[in-house]
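Researcher: I'm preparing a figure for a lab meeting and need a structural model of a single chain. I don't have an experimental structure, so a prediction will have to do for now. The sequence is pasted below. Please return the structure as tokens so I can convert it later.
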Amino acid sequence: MSTGLIILLIVIAAVVVLGAVALTVRGRTRHGGPNLKRRFGPEYERTVALHDGDTEAAERELTERLERHGDLRERPLDGAERQRYADRWTAVQEHFVDSPRQAVAEADLLIAELAAARGYPDGGRYEEQLAALSVHHADHVDGYRQVHRAATGAAADGTGAGTEELRSALLGARALFEDLTSAESGRHRAPAGTGRATPPAATHSHARSHTPWALHRSRPKES
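Model: Understood. Here is the structure written out token by token.
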């Protein structure tokens, strides 16, 4: 083989490698920046804050979540399933009057069970379940994070959250619960290249639970 042919083959190989690298970088860039901000909304800002303002590190984490869970398709619930979950959530809210801590713990477990029923990782893998939910329910996933933190806080430090924090956590988690029990498949997802979808106010599912007056009382009993 002549020297000229060897050089030519080396040049061709180098061009192929550089092209592959460029495509990889372009693919990652396509999911970054404004696209990630639109996709994750408030979750984008939380992740940046967790990385002490390091936007590149935050976007790497969010891109990894998107690559792992972006293709997940939620299993639909039938009407009877939605109603059963709605009834259970209403019972949790009513239980809050007498036992705020226990009600929040029940809400945490109920959301974990509901998410698993919709096709997300099971609740025994909380961090992975949370990451998957953040890809598809970015606007409300922090409510689950808050209620889980409130439910497990007492075991961690011996004191736990106060009544107001427990109430706030439960109210925050309700938005995610309603997303997961909605009959409108995909209403939480934004079309490619647009902002986040806003649920139409007039098309709530029949399973959407009301907030009982108990959650707005100033001083419910502690358990």
